[in-house]
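[Discussion] Sanity-checking designs against the backbone

I'm trying to build intuition for which residues belong where. Below is a structure token string of 827 positions. I'd appreciate it if someone posts a full sequence so I can compare it with mine line by line.
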């Protein structure tokens, strides 16, 4: 127990130093109900717990598996989803009584539909939990009527509605991964509805085929004639850690009909391998949450099929974080055709001993093989190698968001190049639309789909209709995959870097990319506004040129009053700057607040024009213009609209060649003190903050405080007094010192605590020795790895910070070891 708490403490400490992640901020955010991204809902008080979604091939009909019902929704219209028909399918009173007699909660006894698949052209096959006694049936997809023929659902559908399962019908046969008993401890991957010489198959009951799995998904690869299953389970090959979870891919051949004597009515082609979502030298994201298949591009070989999965970590270091990894079919195939581990039946230990290969496990067409070969296959089903992600790296990591579901799509952009788009659902209810670029993932936008976190059971993409469907416990909601009209200028359209959207110079609108538009302005890879918008349209300059600046706002103030000017952000990725025509913004007089606004005291020198600029990806645009002038009489108080006087040097909405800070701005921007200690001490608040400026909270709070104070004793200041120099920066130094001291104190305290804890452990478990060698012996490899990593890492961190690389990068917790391939270390 002690060693466990020590491990968790170490791991928790490491959490402060983990891998250096660049933060992924969605460029724009649409709150729920925002008109830019309208959602369509289907809700009915008679419908709840919508768990399974099935989309017709033409995308016009959505079949929904709910509680005690199957629905057919007409989704052919862009504005509405309407209920076309509903099939009630609930257990009888007697079934319910039996269910509750068995000690189940009444709320869990209804029929929760968990399998919904097209069976043939006219029928759907559906299974439900049916009061903890699963049933399956055929449903006519036109009339939504149940056929008389119904099957027992054992092995096809879970008993317990909270258990995850997967099912897929190919050529009229049902392939499932689920638990096949009431207690939920007999997991099985099986085939049903086979006819003639083809028999129903399941896994052999031999130890170790599945170890307490959670089924995630299954995928049919036509060229291979194989079904792949994705799940997580206990990784018994890592017996040094208690309940180490591993993610798996497993395969079966569709041609399988079982063995003749050995493995009769059992899979002869089952094999499984570990899916490793891990960057070199870091803790693995070991728990698969969801996975989606991206078929190869047109003309590309089937081996290029990709699987995009969301993975989280079992360890609290990475809690709340998630990673996306992609796996290539070729890599999966080569792992399955490699060597296999051997299970010692007596000790139940896995080993990688080299042995004579009697057969190739995982090979299709073994049904005629000898008993000897089949016995070999039966015992060798865990591939020795792990499947590593594409390019051996993570596709993306999010430190702030816990993703639960994803769907993936390939989109052809205006330049005819293909881009991969991921739609990732966060647990807090946002969909992140993400494009994968050479330079990494870019979150184009986030759309809030619900306000309260909801258990989402399915996310479905309709590429033909450009819609995403989300099944929640309350119903179904839908949002379009793109709506380009939100971007109403060429720069906005280009900066979005959305492969779906391009600027049409003819209609002067941001439109959806399609074959009919030939020359759309778009730069997904770089988002270079200058190049795209200038080359696309010269008239555009005139439209947004200097004489069409937004009308300035008149601000009337009395002298010595504190003025605060707001600056709206163009996007979450933009930075705001302030400029005055022909003047410098002296840091002595002006204060740049965290939200981008500017604060100063009205004096004769500070009266005049102010320009708020937003800069993003090297492109600068004017967001607001103010004219601050002295109040002449109480009458002039109301701000009136104001037209900008002709000023020639100021940058306008057209692209500015050099994004560098304007005159005098550099010195006035509050910068980070570049000391190791302050960085570490302060990463936490910035991590959670959605703001992309690197400023401390403390600063913000203090500056606000100052504003309030000074408002109270406004009259105490004299004109032109360098107020801010006397307050802000000088206190900042003190603040830094205090933070450093605090961090130091905390470190000392934690070290002492750890020392005490360790001492205690020793005195209890090993009273006679407390030598460090003994200590390290007692640690599991993971712990040792972690601790070694800790030392290494702090050294690395210091180096990084010294060389000034740390800016803009959040460091929060990695295990760096010299040979830290921990989950892959053979035993
Ligand atoms: C796209 O967004 C605009 C507002 O920006 C909205 O009026 C329109 O209805 C949306 N279109 C679709 C198809 O959602
Ligand atoms: C069904 O929905 C209700 C209400 O959202 C929820 O509390 C319950 O857990 C759901 N049941 C299942 C089996 O998902
Ligand atoms: C589809 O399957 C159902 C159920 O077995 C059967 O009644 C129906 O005739 C089949 N339809 C076709 C077109 O084969
Ligand atoms: C394999 O088995 C099938 C029947 O199960 C038989 O027709 C065929 O001849 C066998 N092939 C070989 C090579 O034994
Ligand atoms: C620079 C400055 O004003 N620092 C103050 C920040 O606020 C704390 C209390 O919230 C004061 O103690 C600091 O002096």
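Best answer:
Here's mine. Compare freely.
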């Amino acid at each position: 127990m002690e060693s466990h708490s020590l491990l968790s403490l170490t791991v928790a400490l490491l959490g402060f130093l983990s891998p250096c992640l660049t933060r992924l901020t969605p460029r724009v955010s649409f709150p729920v109900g925002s008109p830019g991204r309208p959602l369509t809902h289907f809700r009915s008080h008679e419908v709840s717990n919508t768990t399974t979604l099935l989309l017709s091939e033409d995308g016009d009909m959505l079949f929904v598996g709910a509680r005690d019902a199957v629905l057919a929704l007409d989704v052919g219209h862009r504005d509405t989803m309407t209920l076309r028909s509903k099939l009630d399918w609930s257990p009888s009173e007697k079934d319910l009584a039996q269910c509750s007699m068995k000690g189940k909660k009444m709320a869990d006894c209804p029929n929760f539909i968990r399998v919904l698949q097209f069976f043939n052209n006219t029928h759907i096959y559906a299974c439900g939990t049916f009061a903890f006694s699963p049933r399956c049936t055929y449903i006519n997809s036109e009339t939504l009527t149940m056929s008389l023929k119904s099957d027992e659902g054992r092995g096809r559908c879970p008993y317990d509605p909270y258990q995850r399962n997967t099912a897929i019908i190919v050529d009229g046969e049902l392939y499932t991964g689920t638990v096949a008993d009431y207690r939920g401890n007999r997991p099985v991957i099986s085939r049903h509805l086979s006819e003639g010489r083809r028999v129903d198959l399941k896994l052999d009951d031999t130890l170790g085929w599945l170890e307490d799995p959670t089924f995630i998904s299954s995928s049919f690869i036509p060229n291979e004639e194989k079904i792949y299953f994705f799940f997580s389970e206990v990784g018994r090959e890592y017996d040094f850690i208690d309940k180490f979870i591993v993610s798996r891919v497993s395969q079966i051949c569709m041609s399988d009909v079982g063995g003749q004597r050995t493995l009769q009515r059992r899979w002869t082609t089952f094999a499984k391998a570990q899916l490793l979502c891990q960057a070199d030298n870091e803790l693995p994201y070991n728990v698969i949450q969801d996975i989606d298949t991206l078929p190869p591009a047109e003309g590309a070989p089937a081996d290029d099929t990709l699987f995009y999965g969301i993975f989280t970590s079992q360890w609290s270091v990475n809690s709340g974080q998630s990673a996306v990894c992609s796996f290539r079919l070729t890599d999966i195939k080569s792992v399955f055709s490699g060597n296999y581990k051997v299970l010692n039946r007596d000790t139940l230990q896995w080993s990688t001993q080299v042995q004579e290969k009697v057969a190739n496990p995982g090979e299709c067409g073994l049904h005629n093989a000898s008993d000897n070969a089949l016995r070999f296959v039966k015992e060798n089903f865990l591939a020795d190698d792990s499947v590593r992600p594409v390019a051996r790296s993570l596709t993306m990591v999010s430190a702030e968001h816990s993703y639960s579901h994803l769907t993936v799509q390939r989109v052809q952009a205006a330049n005819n190049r293909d881009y991969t788009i991921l739609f990732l659902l966060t647990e807090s209810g946002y969909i992140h639309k993400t494009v994968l670029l050479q330079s990494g993932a870019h979150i184009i936008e986030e759309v809030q789909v619900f306000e309260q976190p909801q258990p989402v059971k399915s996310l479905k993409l309709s590429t033909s209709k450009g819609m995403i469907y989300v099944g929640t416990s309350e119903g179904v909601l839908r949002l379009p995959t793109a709506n380009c009209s939100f971007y109403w200028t060429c720069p906005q359209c280009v900066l979005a870097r959305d492969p779906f959207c391009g600027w049409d110079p003819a209609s002067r609108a941001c439109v959806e990319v399609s074959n009919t538009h030939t020359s759309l302005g778009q730069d997904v890879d770089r988002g270079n506004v200058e190049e795209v918008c200038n080359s696309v349209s010269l008239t555009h300059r005139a439209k947004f040129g200097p004489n069409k600046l937004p009308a300035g706002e008149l601000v009337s103030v009395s002298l010595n009053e504190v003025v605060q000017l707001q600056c709206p952000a163009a996007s979450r990725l933009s930075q705001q700057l302030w400029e005055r025509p022909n003047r410098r913004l002296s840091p002595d007089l002006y204060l740049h607040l965290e939200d981008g606004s500017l604060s100063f005291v009205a004096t004769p020198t500070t009266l005049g024009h102010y320009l708020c600029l937003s800069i993003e990806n090297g492109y600068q645009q004017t967001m607001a213009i103010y004219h601050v002038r002295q109040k002449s009489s109480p009458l002039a108080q109301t701000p009136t609209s104001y037209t900008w006087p002709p000023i020639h040097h100021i940058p306008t909405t057209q692209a500015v060649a050099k994004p560098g800070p304007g005159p005098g701005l550099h010195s006035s921007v509050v910068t980070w003190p570049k000391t190791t200690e302050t960085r570490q001490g302060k990463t936490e608040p910035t991590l959670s903050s959605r703001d992309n400026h690197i400023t401390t909270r403390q600063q913000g709070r203090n500056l606000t405080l100052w504003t309030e104070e000074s408002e109270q004793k406004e009259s105490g200041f004299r004109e032109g007094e360098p107020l801010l120099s006397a307050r802000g920066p000088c206190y900042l130094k003190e603040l830094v010192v205090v933070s450093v001291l605090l961090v130091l104190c905390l470190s000392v305290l934690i070290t002492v605590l750890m020392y005490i804890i360790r001492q205690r452990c020793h005195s209890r478990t090993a009273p006679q020795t407390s030598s460090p060698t003994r200590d390290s012996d007692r640690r599991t490899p993971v712990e040792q790895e972690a601790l070694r990593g800790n030392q290494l890492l702090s050294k690395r961190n210091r180096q990084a910070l010294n060389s000034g690389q740390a800016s803009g990068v959040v460091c929060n917790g990695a295990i760096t070891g010299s040979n830290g391939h921990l989950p892959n270390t053979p035993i």
